[in-house]
Amino acid sequence: MPKLLRALVVAVIALGGMSAAAYAQTKPIVTSLGPDFPRTEIFIGNSFFYYNNSMHSHVLAMQRAADPANKAAYRATSVTISGSGIDWHDVESYFRPKAIGSYSFDDQNNVNFNKLDKLFDVAIMMDCSQCPIHPVLKSVFTEYTKKDSDIVRAKGAKPVFFMSWAYADKPEMTAQLAEAYTVAGNANNALVIPAGLAFAKAVGKQPELNLYAVDKRHPSLAGTYLAACVVFSALTGRSPVGNSYLAGIDAPTAAFLQNVAWETVQEYYGK
Q: How confident is the model at residue 117 (pLDDT cuts 50, 70, 90)?
């Protein structure tokens, strides 16, 4: 796409005049994890994950709300380093036995020592917020998405990439990040979670709703909840619309975010 045309597309989308799916020039090859959707996840990333009591806790709450009869089967954890790039993480070590996930606590605060056939079903990984498109660091993103995908598969889990969002004052990042993550997903036969596209769609539809913290980079609670809805939809193939877990957000706003998430996932995967 010529630079001028691309700039016009981004400008129109920023005004809410086009679908967020228009940001993705390359189409994802992997559009589902299959009928047996994951029940256990590890989130590997940085502060974009751990803001607002950690995204993994919100995704887990949505999963349990959607399947209350089997809520004990769902488990999630998060390994984050502030400001980290994908190469800061020793993913191999996160799957070592008798470490992460080896015990948990029940509702009465009793320790349960978990006997697990498999530590995690999926590993959801992200790079630093600008690393995949940074001229100095984007080659590291390419190298480590391959390296870490191989490690995750060797441990019996599926690699999943989390497409992060643009900074509030740099909307052009949306298209760039969408392309970088989609290309990496295709290169590694990995599912990509289009959270960044959902942010752009929500801003286009309801710009008065603040999805960002004061630094214009990290998510507000609404931003974290929107991203969690996208994660839930991408992993399960199910709509988050009507899910009873609202993260303390008022019902109309939560419903809006649920709908944006589902629309984005459907558009990105071409369903």
A: confident
Q: Which of 132, 131, 141, 162 is nearest to 42 (CA)?
A: 162
Helices then strands, each counted (H, E), the chain: 9, 7
pLDDT in tens, 57-102: 999 999 999 999 999 899 999 999 999 999 999 999 999 988 998 8
- Phi, psi at residue 45, to the nearest 5°? -175, -130
Tell me which amino acid residue 91 is.
Answer: V
pLDDT of residue 72: 87
Residue 97: what residue type? P
What residue numbers bound the domain in which 11 lies? 3-269
Cβ neighbour number for residue 212 with a 10 Å cutoff: 18
Q: Is the distance from CB of 217 to CB of 167 less than 8 angstroms?
A: yes
Banded pLDDT at 24 (limits 50, 70, 90): low
CA distance 29 to 32: 9
What is the distance in angstroms between the CA of the first residue and the CA of the last residue of the chain?
A: 24
- Rounded Cα distance between 160 and 54, Å, is 18
Number of structural domains in the chain = 1
pTM score of the predicted model: 0.91
Please count the other Cβ atoms lying within 10 Å of the Cβ belonging to residue 83: 10
* CATH number of the domain residue 79 falls in: 3.40.50.1110
